Amino acid sequence: MADGAGRIDGPVRGRSVRFRLLAIALLPMLVILPLLLGVAIYRWNTRFDATLISKVNGDLTIAHQYLARILEKTGVQIRGLSLSFRFREVEERETISAVETLLEQSRKEMGLDFLYLMDAGGKIIASSPALEGAPRADWPIITSALSGESPSTGIDIFTNDELATISPALAQRARLDLVPTPNAVPTDRSTETHGMVVHAASRATAPGGGPAALVGGILLNQNLEFIDTINDLVYRAASLPEGSQGTATLFLDDVRISTNVRLFEGRRALGTRVSAAVRSAVMGEGRTWLDSAFVVNDWYISAYEPLVDTYGKRVGMLYVGFLQKPFNDAKLETILIIALAFIAITAASVPIFLRWAQSIFMPLERVTATIGEVESGNLSARTKLPASGDEIGRVAVHLDTLLDQIQERDRQLREWNEELNARVRERTRDLELANLKLEATTKQLIMSEKLAAIGEITAGVAHEINNPIAVMQGNLDVIRSVIGADTEKAKVEFRLVDEQIYRISQIVTKLLQFARPEEYAGYVERHAPGSVVADCLPLVQHLLNKTEISVAREDRASRLVLMNRTELQQVVINLIVNAIHAMPDGGTLTLRSFDADRDDNPGISIDVADTGIGMSTDVLDKVFDPFFTTKRRDGTGLGLSISQTLVKRQRGQITVESQIGSGSTFRVWLPEAS
């Protein structure tokens, strides 16, 4: 119904052309563009974080190289001293006090905390400073130096007693009170007393010519010069944005023993501990940590790597990192600027889009309403819009013309459809009747031709076999009469020949019974199922001989069945042959007979089971259908159908269970003979 503005009521507003056009106009601006911005910001944020991780990884590489250089430099210095002319001259010509004086001078020049000369027996020849006791002689680097190998340098962990043996001052410097740290691994310790030492040794010659080791070391606990040098190398001036701060730390296990991280203004965070998560990853798993981490009192972009002593054991960590907050603030500021810019652009653009869309709302809604009426069955509905020069006006005029044509075509199609439906129904009935007759005739023809061919071939074979059997039996009797009394000498042999001739005769008789059931059928008799199964095996023995199939039998049936013997044999043989075909690579054929009740009716069951390829669900649904076969050219698809017919005639039933790859089991159930 048209209103004063020339509009008509259309579909529900939520599905109208107006809202669809608005969606098309605003979707890119309000949905797609925000999604693209979101994805871009996410990707930028990910790349930004990756850049920070890459930077802190590079910082860690610089710190690692500096520590490696300290280790290398210490080893080279001690090696150079042990090979120097001055050391050998003092060692060979002067007193032990002169050696100690040289060691004192060299220790200060090299910046070592201790330097001593030890003979192969572990005795201290000379030292600087004077040792308070006898240090350990079984360190790997000392053992390596004494054995003549290249000089070695590494990190070793000294107990407080071992440090006190060298110098009480070193033992005191290594002692740190532990500061309670949130998120750290719980501990009962209150003090860290071990010392981390840069340990180096080189082979030397003792006075008198014996082997000796020149051993030196630097205690890293509270070695602020060492850690500040790393920090200055990694985080030079202007290497970080304003507000950020670079830090470096050396850990013994999870305790900060040398750091420039501040616990509060004026005090370094010595004695604080790393978080449990970082300790587990670095010390526990041996991984390098490259991620954010909470360091003492703030979040830092952090890099931790494990430190390994000369025994190959993880004993500490090297850390570098920088304050994360300035970078987070910069990211947040950037995101806010992008969001505000998007809101401003959207606020300016949306009204323009709405004005443009409004000029096409009215005619499109009219067209949409007309199409809706036509879809509901009102073929006489029209837009009735006046012709205009724009595309929408031309579409409306064409739509009205097309609707006129469609209405006329619809009338004609309905008439033709009724006539065609009547003809189709008539032809369908005729075709169904013809198909039923053809199917029945085809089944009878195939079955008749197959049985006739088998009967003809079997009769010919039986005739050809019976003639030689008769000749053999007659000649055997002639031989007995000619030999006379000497027959007793070959009594066993004659008996065996008689038995085999009789066996051949029985096989031929059973073959004829199977091939021409109509000559033997027509009467039923009681049978023990086990004997029927036994009679079937000779008829399929030639198939079994061609395969690697073993036969297992289990005859437990005590009841008899009432059925024509030939027909029952036909059913069993067909199931056995199918089982043999299902095991082309060999397997086990199991034949069972046992008493079984079904629906409170006593009876017996005959199972024919194989371990062959099995059948799918689709095949199981069709396996008893006439003409259905999986043997392609080798079968007609009537065997199981005929078997089912013969069994049902005796009020029995055939069922099958199968699974792909696990074989199949066919079960023939027959009622007990009354």
UniProtKB/TrEMBL annotation:
Q: Where in the cell is it found?
A: Cell membrane
List, alphabetically, the GO terms of the cellular component aspect.
plasma membrane
The answer to keyword ATP-binding applying to this record is no
Q: What sequence ranges are listed for the domain HAMP? A: 358-411
CDD domains in the cross-refs: HAMP (cd06225), HisKA (cd00082)
As recorded in UniProt, its EC number(s) are: 2.7.13.3
Q: Does the keyword Membrane apply?
A: yes
Q: Which reaction is recorded as catalysed by this protein?
A: ATP + protein L-histidine = ADP + protein N-phospho-L-histidine
UniProt GO MF annotations: phosphorelay sensor kinase activity
Q: Which Pfam families match?
A: HAMP, HATPase_c, HisKA, sCache_3_3
Main location as per UniProt: membrane
TM stretches of this protein:
21-44, 335-354
Coiled-coil regions, chain positions: 399-437
Q: What are the protein's UniProt keywords?
A: Cell membrane, Coiled coil, Kinase, Membrane, Phosphoprotein, Transferase, Transmembrane, Transmembrane helix
Ranges where the Histidine kinase domain occurs: 460-674
Q: Which PANTHER family match?
A: HISTIDINE KINASE, SENSOR HISTIDINE KINASE
Name this protein carries in UniProt? histidine kinase
